[in-house]
Amino acid sequence: MDFMKFKGAVAARFEQMKGFPLFRTTVPKDLLWDTYLNSFPEGTNPIYRERCEYDCNCCKQFVRAVGNVVAIVDGHVVSIWDITIDEPAYDTVAKAMAAVVKQHPIDNVFRHTDRTAGTEKNFEALPEPGAVRARDHFFVNIPEAYVVKKAAIGTILGEHRSTFDVMRRGLLEITDEAVSTVQELIEQNSLYRGAEHKPAVDAFARLKAAFKKNPIDEFIWASLSNAARIRNTAIGTLLVDLSEGRELDAAVASFEAKVAPTNYKRPMALVTKAMIDSAKKTIEELGLTSALERRYATIDDITINNVLFADRAVKAQLGGDVFDGLATKSEKPANFDKVEEVTIEQFLAHILPKADTVEVMMDNAHTGNLVSLIAPVDATARGLFKWPNNFSWSYNGEFADSIKERVKAAGGNVTGELCCRLAWDYTDDLDFYMYEPNGNRIYFGCRRQRSSNGGMLDVDANGVDGLRANPVENIFYEQISKMRPGAYVLKVNNYSRRSPGVGFEVEIDIKGEIHRLAYDRVLASGSTVEVATLHVAKGGTVTVEAALPSTTSQKEVWNVKTNSFQKVSAVMLSPNFWNDRQIGNKHFFFMLDGCLNDGKARGFFNEFLVDDLTPHRKVIEMVGSKMKTDLSAYQLSGLGFSSTQRNSLLCRVKGSFSRVIKIIF
Fold first, then answer.
1. H or E element in which residue 510 lies
2. Mean pLDDT throughout 553-571?
3. Are 93 and 84 in contact (CB under 8 A)?
4. How far apart are CA 442 and CA 455, in angstroms?
5. Whole-prediction pTM value?
6. Nearest-5° angle of CA 300, CA 631, CA 407?
7. Which domains does the chain have, with CATH numbers?
8. Up-side HSE of residue 469: CA atoms within 13 Å toward CB?
9. Are strands 418-423 and 504-510 parallel, antiparallel or unpaired?
10. pLDDT tens across 259-282, in order?
11. Is the pLDDT of residue 30 over 90?
12. Residue 21, exposed/middle/buried by CB under 10 A (0-12, 13-18, 19+)?
């Protein structure tokens, strides 16, 4: 057999491959050498002295050094063993080597510390005096571009592997929608210095389009470029936020907080023409245009089947029994600390069916629970929601559920075991502070940075991130068990007084148990109010010690007085649970006699809508904020309670018996 043919064919293949980027596969070096020796057909690799003819250290070093080198040519992996020679034994070995190399994935680029691999030729002294045998071995010259210093090779390989990993994550996780949205925002000058990021975004868009046609790791290795690391850039964080479903306003605000000066004002809206046209087309195709017009619902809009309790006057309108109504008066309650407690399920099953009248005590802390039922202007409109009726609801402050939903919409974490949420409704720059027992302080200066106790402020409103329509801030801890035992003091500071607004609300959410605290005074610029001290004990229990000034004074909200019993006109579940349907989160509505939403309520929220509208959620979000109800003196409004949030409501029931109970949600 002529080894020179084998050696020459391998060297020639390597020369051909040098015109393409070179890589290594993960095939173990020992496996590669064993495959080489074991692939020779029987009888073609005889024993020479003590070892087989082709079992030599020079060839072994070559195989271990460059035997796993491959190139990517026209989308296909090519190894140095992809050769065809007219020597059957060597041809068999080459095919076996090529197969084992390409069975393993590419792991990194090829780099070498020497200018050559293998040994061209050496000479061996034979036992006979003066006799010498020349032996040929595998040998190639390594191109200069692939030769690096030994001390630097680890760093270089690490950088290339990191680039691959970042590019792969970006191609898999960044959506086409996010890329096109950012491109359009740049085109319409809606991003701060967006033109500077345009080349990188456009290059990544081209990479992603090509990757969709060839979604394999080999494509990524062959396409490593500057655009590969876009995920780790400022514009990349915007692409990732949008891909993960973060609301457009919040995502862009986060981007601008990283790259824009504090006095920067975005010149244009954060919705592209293409996004609007696409959403409009879908709405028209679904026949939902008329369903977007909304109004306050009245008792005439609903049927008796969807009402769990109706006051006698309401029963008359619904076609029920007609009785004279019982007059009720608002009054300051007595001490009800020892009243009987029942769950909402027990109340609905055993107490409400026997009641003639129901009154509830609306505390100051319940102002965030005020809710209005919303109906379509066009009663014949097609279904807009995930449930088979066209009714929706809106809580005080224009949210679907609670302050929690406002935080979620702003991109904040709402799943931590401990979440502290601050909400207000004016343009002052209020700031949330948490003083931890080890002396650390969580505040806007370290937002989105996790403390040693696992806490983080991830939403900061009306400050660096710009003004928000519904300002909220959020401090959360993922796991209470990782918090250092001790006292955590929560405070609110007014960094900048800009408006005549008054007060704020705080939710402290401990594994679903909600503590609501309210401050109803003017907070002067530079002033700080202590909200509460959270005592974290060993074992993960948390107790709340409120520190706010008393908020027990009576006030009027939505035409009803707080801290007094109010007549309930109807009790019902939220529309997503009507007619024995169970879609999403259940809410319990206690509609109050005379309760009037004094503003224009939002007609719908994205989480309500049919799935066909999900791709257009950013445009629909803006449409929803504009499609508000008109003011009306006829409406169904009252108190709403979510089944997923702990709360309580003092209730006075009259019927065959009269008693005061505390309903636990």
1. strand 504-510
2. 85
3. no
4. 7
5. 0.48
6. 100
7. 3-146 (no CATH), 154-270 (no CATH), 294-396+558-664 (no CATH), 403-553 (2.60.60.30)
8. 11
9. antiparallel
10. 776 555 554 456 666 777 777 888
11. yes
12. middle
